[in-house]
Amino acid sequence: MKISYNWLKQFLQTDWDATKTGELLTDLGLEVEGIETKESIKGSLQGIVVGKVLTCIQHPNADRLKITTVDLGYGEPVQIVCGAPNVAAGQKVPVATIGTTLYDDKGEGFKIKKGKIRGEESHGMICAEDELGLGKGHDGILVLDEAIEVGKPAAEVFNIEIDQVFEIGLTPNRSDAMSHFGVARDLKAGLIQKDLKLELISPSVSDFHVDERVLRFDVEVDDKELCPRYCGIAITDIEVKDSPEWIQNRLKSIGLTPKNNIVDITNYVLHELGQPLHAFDAQKIKGNKILVKTLEEGTKFKTLDEVERILSAEDIMICDADSNPLCIGGVFGGYKSGVTENTTSIFLESAYFNPVSVRKTAKRHALNTDASFRFERGIDINMTEYALKRAALLIEEYAGGKLSSDISDFYPEKIEDFQVFLSYENANRLIGQEIPRETIKNILASLEIKINSETEGGLGLTIPSYRTDVQREADIIEEILRVYGYNNIEFSHKLNTSISFDSNKETKIENIVANQLSSLGFNETMANSLTKPAYTNLSENINEEANVEILNPLSNDLKVLRQSLLFSGLESVAYNINRKNSSLQFYEFGKTYHKYNEKYQEDKHLTLFVTGNRSKDSWKTVSNPSDFFYTKGIINSVLSRLGIDKVKSSPTKQDIFSEGISFGLGKIKLVEFGVVKTSILKEFGVKQEVLFADFNWDTILKLSGNKKIKVTELQKFPAVKRDLALLLDTKTEFKEVYNLAFQSEKKVLKEVDLFDVYEGDNLPEGKKSYAVSFLLQDESKTLADKQIDKIMQKLQQTFEKNLNAVLR
Question: What φ, ψ does residue 671 adopt, rounded to 5°?
Fold first, then answer.
């Protein structure tokens, strides 16, 4: 939120330095994230002076140029070549001197230099209105009043305003500070603690009176819960034109673009007092009646941005007598009912809408306006009529309008101020220090919190309506503390602490696996648990009815809690690939959320994502893509590290994989693993193979940690390695070779590895070749050649008998 310091000074006449004020606002809880200098005109007309044209003759080499001599008020007159048709001797004109920087309408600057134009020297530039940023006119140079002194800086002639603008990171609870008046109110309380008692000057509306009652609008509100208060007034005989310069400067300082006097005044009062307003073209309101109601689901409505929106039956709508929608209440105006240059009479609205309803509507239609920002957080309901009068008087003064009706004020049930009791004992306990009771009373008074009663133990208080966030004793204590100053609370120089010992088994196991995966080149990710509802359509195994929906989602992309870690992980994969980082190894510990028969369930998972090459490309290494078996090895190493052995694999039933397997112990599933379907990858714009593993972490935690570590002596006798090239049926798996080998030779056979598979030319149909290595080692002696040959012959015969293997 942007706050202009010059604007702020309209309410508090202070000469404090902006930096010092920013520090105080931060101490008060209105954190100033930055202070920016703003100029009403870019460059503040520095280097522009008033000159007098002494002579003006035709340029000898150009029909449209003239040579002038101009007195700048110091030294000798200078020669300037000028192309304006209206330049003439005797004029007072603005002159950009050598070295001056002028800015175009995009804010880009160019420097005035000494030069020659068609052979004639030019020592400056006589400027037009648009070249100075004073307007849009470019028909000729700007001719000034003859009474202005030659040599006077143009900044003094045009009253250039330089402002300091605070960027305040406003927390959602501080709805009372969503305006310049609200910030000034807080600043006043802070300055009192600095022994500076300043008067808070509020805009006067004492001149408000109805000129003539010629245009009446009836107001009818269907649901007082959706709209507890609605005020409006008719104003006639207005002239839509540009706003006065001072209003434009105020709006520009906080980043708003002026449009016309009516729109600018409503925006001005919004940022001045925090009350959103809306002006309707009165001639476009049928039946001279305002209906505040909801419309049927699916009703179409075109908003000011010329977008046709489909309304919800919960949207608050402002309608005419025929129930034609004019505006989305508290959010956005309608295309057909807005003020145009032809508008001559308006109905000015000032209302209080239900914050929850406005928030839902704004999110539903993806509209974030200055009005909805305030209504969502809760405005001051007692400011409604006052802000309406303030805006009406400004329109009367700067648009020539006449107040043509009494104020319509629907306010059936007045909202009472909160009553809170403050205990001195609780205040001292929470603050950690005893603050003098008189100081507490003074702070409460500076915050406009009334003291109704006082006892030895505490104070009975009435909270003003604009402090919607102060409803409990703890809130009062927080208010006292922030105004008193957190930095003024004493603290001990002695720090007492205890050493915590985390004996949580789950955390230990998680750290063990995380360290192992990190050492293997994996990076840990942490994705948002909120995700898109549409992801449930990518898999039949994910039930849309099991989605856990958010009541007030930030957007449609963050509307439900995830049922799978796959899709949020693929978002991270796609993000990296799009930034030329295509070799990825990710792991994530996270939860999935499900709703079954009105009951909610959370499941913990560990997921792995592998894609691209195993290592970074280099001139020394051959490209080695990650594949199914590489990732399978990673999974086996994780399970083995946790003491989970003898797992069996079976085909997976998950439809997210084009090919995949499931690891388990009996009927207990531990891991689902495979290659993600191309159709799913396409949804994320991923064009390369991605391998995904999903560990059922809750189950794994129950099974892990029971592995006993065995320590064995290093072998004294050498190992021997032998190879066999076996011709096998294509349906034969390596697992069968592996198991038969250990069944045949249990004593000295230590390892069996598959190091080559060949399927292709020169092999019989239906056959493949396995190159298998066998590691033999006797723990008591060195193996002899005869013993080795006997073992290998036995293995060969076993394969020939059971697998119909043929030695190649």
Answer: -140, 135
Sheet (strand 418-423) strand order: 418-423, 458-463, 450-454
Q: How far is CA 411 from CA 276, 354, 392, 463, in A?
A: 17, 13, 20, 20
Tens digit of pLDDT for each residue in 309-354? 999 999 999 999 999 999 999 999 999 899 999 999 999 999 999 9
Strand 458-463 with 418-423, pairing: antiparallel
Which are the contacts of 17, defined by CB distance < 8 A and separation ≥ 6?
none
> And the tokens for 490?
């004493």
Residue 51 has pLDDT above 80, yes or no: yes
pLDDT tens for 361-395 read 998 998 999 999 999 999 999 999 999 999 999 99
Least trusted range by pLDDT, from 6-10, 68-72, 716-720, 757-761: 757-761
Give the span between the Cα atoms of 295 and 283, in whole angstroms: 22
CA-CA distance, 44 to 63, in Å (whole number)?
34
Phi-psi category of 414—alpha, beta or left, where left has phi over 0 and alpha has psi -120 to 50?
A: beta
Q: Which two tokens stand for residue 229?
A: 């208060």
Residue 59 DSSP label: -
Distance CA 343, CA 261 (A): 12
Per-residue pLDDT reduced to its tens digit, 271-309: 999 999 999 999 999 999 999 999 999 999 999 988 999
Q: Are strands 584-596 and 523-524 parallel, antiparallel or unpaired?
A: parallel
Question: What pLDDT, on the 0 to 100 scale, is given for residue 379?
Answer: 92
Per the CB < 8 A criterion, the answer to whether 162 and 37 are in contact is yes
Helix (H, G, I), strand (E, B) or coil at 642: coil
- pTM (predicted TM-score): 0.66
Q: Compute CA distances 629 → 523, 643, 645, whole Å.
A: 20, 21, 18
How many helical (H) and strand (E) elements, i.e. helices and strands, does the chain have? 20, 41
Least confident of 103-112, 300-309, 476-485: 103-112
CA angle 796, 800, 802 (to 5 degrees): 115
Characterise 255 by phi-psi region: left (phi > 0), alpha (psi -120 to 50), beta (else).
left
Are 329 and 318 within 8 A, CB to CB? yes
Residues 6 or more apart whose CB falls under 8 angstroms from that of 63 comprise none
Helix H or strand E segment including 185: helix 180-192
pLDDT, residue 493, reads: 78
Q: What are phi and psi of 149, to 5 degrees?
A: -70, 135
Give 3-state DSSP helix, strand, coil % of the chain, rounded to 5. 30, 30, 40
Dihedral pair phi/psi, residue 153, rounded to 5°: -60, 135
